[in-house]
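Q: Predict the bound structure with adenosine-5'-triphosphate.
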Amino acid sequence: MASELEKIFGARSTPPAQEARRLGMVIGGSLSEGLTVKLDPRIAVEGLAVGRYVVIRGYRRRFFGMITDIRLDSANPDLARMPPDPDDPLIREMVAGIGVFGQIHVQPMLVLEEGDPLPRPVKTVPAHFSPVYEATEEEVHAIFRPRVKEREDRYFIIGEPLDMPGVRIPLNLDRFVERSSGVFGKSGTGKTFLARLLLAGVIYHNASVALVFDMHNEYGWSALGEEGRVKGLKQLPECFSRVVIATLDEESSRRRDSRYDLVIRIGYDQIEPEDVELLRGVIGLTEVQIGALYMLRRRLGPSWLRILLEEDRAPVEVEEGGEEVPPDPLTELVERDLITSSTLGALQRKLGLFHRFRFLVPQTTEDAAQGILDRILRGQSVVLEFGRYGNDMAAYVLVANYLTRRIHAEYVRRKEAALGDLAQEPPHLMIVVEEAHKFLQPGIAEHTVFGTIARELRKYNVTLLIIDQRPSQIDSEVLSQIGTRVLCLLDHEEDVRAALAGISGASRLREVLARLETKQQALLLGHAVPMPVVVRTRSYDASFYEELAREDSPEDLVARYRRAMWGEDED
Amino acid sequence: MAITTRARSDRSAEPAFIGRVIEASARTFLVGCRLTAEDIPAFGSFVQTARGETTIIGVIYDLVLQGDDLTRILALQDVPPPEIQQDMIENRNIPVRIGVLTLGYMRDRLTYYGIPHQPPALLERVHTCLPAQIQRFTEEPDFIRPLVEAREASDDVLAAVVRTAAEARPGPHQRDFLVQVGRELVRLLADEPTRLGQLLRRIRMAAGTP
Ligand SMILES: Nc1ncnc2c1ncn2[C@@H]1O[C@H](COP(=O)(O)OP(=O)(O)OP(=O)(O)O)[C@@H](O)[C@H]1O
Ligand SMILES: [Mg+2]
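A: Predicted complex:
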């Protein structure tokens, strides 16, 4: 039949593979606004999706871009408004693609020049009518391919691009930890799973030491996923000795069979007003009350908090002529008008919740911060389980702030003492905080050590990995310092905007971000990837542990990458 | 399908002679002839004539049957005798003037759309086109434009031309052809949605039931 037709019509040249991937042509746009591409009539609009890669073939350059929007247009609005017989399939076929047609919006991101193997950021746009193609797997690979300079760079495969199950997207771990990073997404989108995946990569490949404030006990030892239990970081291959689990709540850790190594106790006299100050938002401290904290510390010395909370039970009354009253330090302060009794009462009431925190003890000889720091300096990552205190925001904020302040101060001291001698410097540390906005809200971020770490970048070898549902509640200056963003689905308009703020051309990615699937899809952008990419994130399950185990041995990175990327087995 | 092809080529293995050019301009020409009413070609038929090495292709957009004295006399009678009327249709060669719209031309086995360098020469012979020629000439949808733009040809002619061209193709290819033509029309007539709608509906009828 076919040959008979060919006899009549002449053989039709089969379109080359490239033509089969053709989507349309550029009809307008700009570098800042992105490009408008008119789809060829044969392209089914429905078959496209925001987040996919396209390649635009200019005269001597190939431009890489991402589909950021899809829309319908018509040659004449009347035609779309009064379509001739839209119900008739034949007529619809005639009109579709010509009279009414699909358009896609493409954000150009990188350009590959002829004769230059390295993709560069775009500085121009392709000409009118340049043809646009779906990117091939080879092209995507060429962009994300690790560029290895004598094993300096280390990579971790984070997932696959949309609709390209054969290609893996590697994340440059060194760049990932070099600056603070963020994982954002609404509840249940897989932030914790993703963060744990990233941490596995970081710890496994020794890119950094991590300190995880594990609010819900999901990082160290076994966590509950929707499909049963998954392993914690300490259970991953090679990681048992590299990860230390510390706990605030021994009872809970024991109940969960967590293999903790360290129990954290903090003495009242180790706590300073600065540690308590950060709770202002959580327990509602006023400026006057905060001022009083510092005054108490000055007047009463290190045991200020113990005295304050011990006096809790006996209300302070100033009695006329009551010279019989034993000399009580708090009463004395009130008498001397250094604090009003109502302020004192309020503080005692608000800080009274410390009584519930079993990890706070009146006195201890241990130094929790030093204990953790020792492990970190030895190159071990520490996961701090909060046990039952994870649900208490005050406990979380207090402890995370308490420890981080001390560890950061020590890092600053050591880094400065090292005088640039790399061997003397403390190992790179990444501090992981969930519900990060509690530490980094506008108005709070300026005062806290977390804000400081985010702002001073990598100066002292400490960076943050912040995990949050509401990026819009994080101080915009802090957000702007974030190097790598891993964005899961966000649906509040202001969160989407905040998550993308400060990245050129990123506002165009809004549609992409708002259309991610609710789980295991993320938009990656920033420092650790050459261009923004939507990935189906790797599953954190048995197959992951196995793959990780196979990634071992310091063999040639290129070979290792190839195998992971293309399934090539060299032996 | 092979059978239909043969049947068609049997019926008109040779282009049929119609008449000669009696008037010509760049875009149209008139053909004069005497034909029995049965042999008069239909609106929308493809015809060809030559100018040197060039074969000019056009479509019939107008037909004028010229009556003579006898016609006029008979017409004056209350009831023209039926046997004479029948004879007129079957046997008498009536002078006919055929209006042809030039769509393009073929030279050196290549097809060009639009008006030829020169109009056909007077008294040049005009023939019908064979299905294979029609098919080749209408391979590109560009043949539509002169029809859309011509003041002389109504959209009825356009629809008839498309139908003729579709019928010159084997069945399975007719639909593709109609879609291709339809798209060209959408492209040309995007600013005239009403006219476009009517045309598409008319062309659609040529495809029969979907
Ligand atoms: N990469 C992944 N591999 C396997 N399962 C995953 C992955 N990502 C998400 N999931 C599934 O999605 C569920 C929710 O993920 P997760 O607990 O990480 O969400 P979350 O964003 O941290 O939510 P919340 O804001 O409530 O803390 C997990 O229990 C798990 O079953
Ligand atoms: Mg979580």
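A: The mean pLDDT of chain B is 83.
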